[in-house]
């Protein structure tokens, strides 16, 4: 697989400051695909300087021209869709069809949405005797995870560019090749030098240097709660803007009036998709006690269908982690309905699609983010009980409600402590704000709310 041996800084691929590299591994066969440079504080500093230097001109570029560059970027992503999908499949392990439809499809939609928003957004508003100007925050340090490697990048870079910010990106060490392809696309789209910069490297080295760099005005992070907490603390100490998109433990609430089979099948598909490595996955299914065993049987059958279709998880550590959670679930007394801790194949970081029944709200399975293909089914007595269970974690990223009557589902959803809820299987909307209540994060991505994260206001009184 093609890889650059340098960093994309100030509009060109430049040699890295140090000699260390990161091996990129295909999780489906454990073979090394390529090596990329492991960036240091020196590389980050060069990238931040380039972004600072480019900021005044980009901030002053008319929104219509910024929109045209983002539109061109979207078109390059479309033109190179096959190459991107193949790269995501190689370094993340997701099945090629899923890479094409979701790992390429979602970022293309998001880039397209920001091409339109940049052109139409009101960067100036009147309030009484004031004119309020919405101005770009400055240099953005973006730190992204591997689970949706291109989507997570585009969800930060596209709105930042639309706002007039410049960016330094530190992508996940497991998926740097997709990030390099993105940098090529930015270059091809004619985005001016220094507006977007890429430093590949390790979190505690390059990521840490970026999050704490004095020349960064806003840090936007997606990943684990542990790292997010540290980044938030560092940003707070420096009085810097910060956006954190962290974990989730979302509830899929099936009310008794729902189409049970549909709700269970869609729920299982949601958890198994991307091998369970989705922060907004509905990893807790809540079923009324009278329908419980029927739902468990349906879920077991549905999960078995994924045995041959599911991709591996991203790396050996993640495989160990997920298997550890499955073993813990058994040890805590949950009932294994499908899958289990034994790896289904000799080679590759595969985990069997796993379903647990008799999971109670205080079990580890029901409280911690597993980030693997593991579904827990919980039993509730009535709606109040279901709500208590649904809201009973530190997280609040997503969720789902199913009911025969849409109004009943909406009434329940309005009482959930979470940033987004899909009603009876509602579709993903790239314009709807995405982000968490409680410890699932701070700030929102996507749509106009995502754009507002990269703007600050200046009020002129007359
Ligand atoms: P992570 O370490 O939080 O990784 C996210 C990003 O932060 C990566 O680019 C990472 O670099 C970087 N990073 C790590 N330590 C850093 C530091 N001290 N300072 C600055 N940046 C740092 O997450 P992970 O290790 O990949 O996954 C662990 C768990 O996090 C998963 O099992 C899952 O529960 C959760 N997770 C959540 C999401 C989400 O979308 N909310 C996404 C991924 C993972 P490296 O790639 O070098 O580590
Ligand atoms: Mg990590």
Share of helical residues:
40-55%
What is the annotated CATH architecture of the largest domain?
3-Layer(aba) Sandwich
- Overall spatial form: globular
CATH topology of the largest domain: Aldehyde Dehydrogenase, Chain A, domain 1
- The CATH class of the largest domain, by name, is Alpha Beta
Helical stretch tally: 15
Give the low-pLDDT segments.
none
Strand content: 15-25%
Strand order of the largest sheet: 14-15-16-13-12-17-18
How many separate structural domains?
Answer: 2
Count of extended strands: 20
Active site: 245
InterPro entries: Ald_DH/histidinol_DH (IPR016161), Ald_DH_C (IPR016163), Ald_DH_CS_GLU (IPR029510), Ald_DH_N (IPR016162), Aldehyde_DH_dom (IPR015590)
Keywords: Oxidoreductase
Domain Aldehyde dehydrogenase: 13-459
What's the topology here?
Layout: E1 6-9, E2 12-15, E3 21-25, E4 32-37, H1 41-60, H2 63-79, H3 81-92, H4 96-120, E5 124-127, E6 130-136, E7 139-143, H5 149-163, E8 166-170, H6 176-188, E9 196-198, H7 203-211, E10 218-222, H8 225-237, E11 241-245, E12 251-254, H9 260-272, E13 284-288, H10 292-304, H11 316-331, E14 335-338, E15 354-357, H12 364-367, E16 374-380, H13 383-390, E17 399-402, H14 406-413, E18 422-423, E19 441-442, H15 447-452, E20 455-461
Parallel strand pairs: 7-8, 7-10, 8-9, 10-11, 12-13, 12-17, 13-16, 15-16, 17-18
Antiparallel strand pairs: 1-2, 3-4, 5-6, 6-20, 11-19, 14-15
Helix pairs in contact: 1-7, 2-4, 2-5, 2-6, 3-4, 3-6, 4-5, 9-10
The protein binds NADP nicotinamide-adenine-dinucleotide phosphate and magnesium ion (MG).
């Amino acid at each position: 697989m093609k890889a650059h041996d340098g960093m994309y800084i100030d509009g060109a691929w430049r040699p890295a400051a140090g000699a260390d590299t990161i091996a990129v591994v295909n999780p489906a066969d454990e073979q090394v695909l390529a090596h990329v440079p492991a960036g240091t504080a020196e590389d980050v500093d060069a990238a931040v300087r380039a972004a600072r230097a480019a900021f005044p001109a980009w901030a002053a570029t008319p929104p219509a021209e910024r929109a045209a560059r983002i539109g061109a970027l979207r078109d390059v992503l479309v033109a190179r869709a096959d190459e991107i999908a193949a790269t995501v499949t190689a370094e993340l392990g997701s099945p090629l069809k899923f890479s094409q439809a979701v790992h390429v499809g979602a970022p293309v939609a998001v880039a397209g949405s920001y091409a339109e928003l940049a052109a139409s957004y009101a960067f100036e508003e009147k309030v009484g005797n004031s004119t309020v100007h919405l101005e770009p925050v400055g240099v953005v340090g973006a730190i992204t995870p591997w689970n949706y490697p291109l989507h997570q990048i585009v969800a930060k870079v596209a709105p930042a560019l639309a706002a007039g910010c410049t960016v330094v990106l530190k992508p996940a060490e497991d998926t740097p090749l997709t990030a390099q392809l993105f940098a090529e696309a930015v270059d091809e789209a004619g985005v001016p030098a220094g507006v977007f910069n890429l430093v590949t490297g390790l979190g505690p080295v390059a990521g840490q240097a970026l999050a704490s760099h004095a020349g960064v005005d806003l840090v936007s992070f997606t990943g684990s709660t542990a790292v997010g907490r540290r980044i938030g603390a560092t940003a707070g100490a420096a009085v810097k803007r910060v956006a954190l998109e962290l974990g989730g433990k979302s509830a899929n609430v099936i009310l008794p009036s729902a189409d049970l089979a549909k709700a269970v099948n869609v729920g299982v598909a949601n958890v198994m998709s991307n091998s369970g490595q989705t922060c907004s996955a509905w990893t807790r299914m809540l079923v009324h006690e009278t329908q419980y065993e029927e739902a468990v049987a349906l879920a077991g059958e549905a999960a078995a269908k994924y045995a041959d279709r599911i991709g591996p998880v991203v790396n050996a550590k993640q495989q160990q982690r997920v298997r550890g959670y499955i073993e813990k679930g058994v040890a805590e007394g949950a009932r294994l309905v499908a899958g289990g801790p034994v790896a289904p194949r000799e080679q590759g970081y595969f985990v069997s699609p796993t379903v647990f029944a008799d999971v109670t709200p205080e079990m580890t399975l029901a409280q911690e983010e597993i980030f693997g293909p593991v579904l827990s089914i919980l039993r509730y007595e009535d709606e109040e009980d279901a709500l208590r269970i649904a809201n009973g974690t530190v997280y609040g990223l997503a969720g789902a409600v199913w009911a025969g009557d849409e109004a009943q589902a909406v009434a329940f959803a309005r009482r959930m402590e979470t940033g987004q809820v899909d009603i009876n299987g509602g579709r993903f909307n790239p314009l709807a704000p995405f982000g968490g209540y409680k410890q699932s994060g701070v700030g929102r991505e996507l749509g106009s709310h995502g754009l507002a994260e990269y703007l600050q206001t200046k009020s002129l009184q007359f």
